[in-house]
Amino acid sequence: MALAAELSGSAVCALLGSGADPSAVARAAAAAAAASVRGHLPGPRRPGAKAAAARTARELRELLAGSGGGDGALAAMLAVAAVNTTVAALPRAVAWCADAGLWGQAGDRELLPRLADELLRVTAASPVLPRAAAADGTAGGCPVRAGDRLVLVARHAAGAHRRGPDALDPAPPAEAHLVFGAGPHACPGARLARAQLADVLAALAPYRPVVVRARADRRAALPGWRVLTVRAGTA
Predict the structure, then answer these.
(1) What's the pTM value of the predicted model, to 2 decimals?
(2) 3-class secondary-structure state, position 172
(3) Distance between CA atoms of 180 and 139, rounded to whole angstroms?
(4) Can you say whether the dihedral through the CA atoms of 121, 132, 81, 126 is positive or negative?
């Protein structure tokens, strides 16, 4: 997890041209996202949730002030999206490779890009996407009115609940890409996510890592591990 955080923070700082410490950016972005999610959970609001969300957002903006111009608000938004999806996706993909014995595919240069797509499809860092209908229409035969609030289950749309990752028999690209959204709301960082994951898998594949410790992060904004420790396995 520390490695995933450092990678995500470094990528964000490089994208923004920021001189901030990558690990500090990763921690601040994770805290801002978690506080924001807690402030929007259904039911009674937790005491201090709104203040915590405002504080963590301000701290991240201050850390990135001057990056990309302005007061750091746009940079902070990019950091929250990039850090949290990366920290959620990379460790889960590595753990899946270890559990499902996919290191052989990861070590094959031809199969590696397809495996990265497949792992991103099944891990779906943002498994649900809140949206609002722009106009009247239908969804699965059900009427939808303009302004209706919708929750799109991206993981199901990509078939992650039906089939596991397999670079030898991958899902169609149009289906796999649904975890990044579609249309004007498609994630602009999709190519970067694929490249990051492919690089990580290529670096680890020769060691055939196995998971020795894992603990879920129940406070994170997105599904992920709080602790994931791997060690080299057998060739």
Answers:
(1) 0.82
(2) coil
(3) 19
(4) negative
Compute how many other C-beta atoms are within 10 angstroms of the C-beta atom of residue 81: 18
Which tokens is 18 given? 């920021």
Task: For residue 130, report the phi and psi dihedrals to the nearest 5 degrees.
Answer: -75, 135
Residue 91 carries which side chain, given as an amino acid letter?
Answer: P
**Strand stretches in the chain, DSSP E:** 128-132, 137-139, 142-144, 149-153, 210-216, 225-231
Residue 124 burial (CB count, 10 A): 27
- Return d(Cα 108, Cα 159) in angstroms, integer: 24
Handedness of CA 28, 30, 34, 37 (dihedral sign): positive
> Phi and psi dihedrals of 137, rounded to 5?
180, -160
Residue carrying the six token digits 């860092």: 125
Per-residue tens of pLDDT for the chain, all 235 residues: 688 888 888 988 888 888 888 899 988 888 888 888 766 555 566 667 678 778 888 888 888 877 655 667 788 888 888 888 888 889 999 999 999 999 999 999 999 999 999 999 999 877 877 778 889 999 888 999 999 988 888 888 888 888 999 999 999 988 888 888 877 778 888 888 999 999 999 999 999 999 999 998 887 777 888 889 999 987 6
CA-only gyration radius of the chain, Å: 19
